[in-house]
Amino acid sequence: xxxxxxxxxxxxxxxxxxxxxxxxxxxxxxxxxxxxxxxxxxxxxxxxxxxxxxxxxxxxxxxxxxxxxxxxxxxxxxxxxxxxxxxxxxxxxxxxxxxxxxxxxxxxxxxxx
Length: 113
What we know:
Layout: E1 17-20, E2 23-29, E3 40-46, E4 50-55, E5 61-67, E6 69-74, E7 77-82, E8 86-89, E9 94-101, E10 107-112
């Protein structure tokens, strides 16, 4: 939602969208905010949840692991990424993202662009 005073978009009150019983996401920055350039999503998921192998033909995908650990397949390379890790998978390369370990809350969290 655009703040008329600042002209900036504020998604802090946007709703969480459920993908499956163990994972959900929230739009943090939409294509409307960036003139169609990109979207930033926040994902929260329990261990074992994530996306199956797939390909993005038109855009690179960037990950910032905020909590827990995430397994990211970048083609035939596998990265088990703990909190604090950033990773990029180039367009046209197959990828898989799976939440694997979480301390404390039992769920992991990423920003994805």
